[in-house]
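ok trying again, last paste got cut off:
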Amino acid sequence: MSTTGPAGWPEDFPFRPHLRFCTLGNENVTEVMESFRIACEQLGYSTSIEAAPSVDNADINLFFFAMGLGLPSDAELPLNAIVVNFEPGLPELLAEMPGYRHLLQRTWVWEYSLDNLKHHQALGILRSDYVPLTFEPKATPIVSEDQVLSDDQQDIDVIFFGETMPRRLSILSALEAHGLRVVYPIGKAWTPAQRDALLPRAKVALNMRKADHTSTAELPRLSILLRNRKAVVSELYPHSEIPPVLRDAVESCSYNELVERVHVLLADVPRRRMLEKAGPLALLGLTPQKEILAGAIQRYVAAVRQRL
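nice, full thing came through this time. structure:
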């Protein structure tokens, strides 16, 4: 079918080398999708952003943050549908969200977590591939060093953004009880503009897991913090799934040590300045997103051709 696209695209492939991107998440996670989309364009694919999900076309359709995705029919989805999963702790999540489990069982899945991937077979997810989130600077530019505010100008002690469930609120409340100025969204998520206006003013940023059972680091949030040159205290363990280069660019500790470690880092200005420089270098040390996706698309094409 295809007559254009990247070099080596098979002429007899049933779908065009045009990738339709659709997210069901809020605008705070759009840049995750943009990292994939721009990387695909760099590989030679044409792309578009779709407001509504559809597979009724001759293109390749990628769905992000698709827990609420509703597509026609209860049967297996067409081969031109790919769901990209960025949810940690998949076994526990799918026990609570059988609809999402059913969706993942019916389609090709790009999985960001090796820890999740090892559970796919037991969960009935039989067509999947490991496709991690790395870094695409054209989608999420690194803040220049001259934009980092001085310690005197940073009037916020601690910043956190993300879902504020009780596990996270307990830490945030403890920091406030120690007299620190802590900012985080209450009741409603910040817009990217609100978040980006607050980030420069913060001395320390927090990265915490959603639940005790998740072992995958919250990489989408961590990537945002590091490209904004934040000194990050991140909940990590020896078994946590995170690229080593990123682990070395943050202050890592257990959940019970978070409050103490924040205090220590607030008092250590040289250490904070070092971390502000280390974060962007760590992101640039990851395998480029386009290289990750070049292999993923190649494997997807091969898998589809085997099923024809």
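cool. The chain has eleven helices and eleven strands. Residues 145-284 form a domain with the Rossmann fold fold (CATH 3.40.50.2000).
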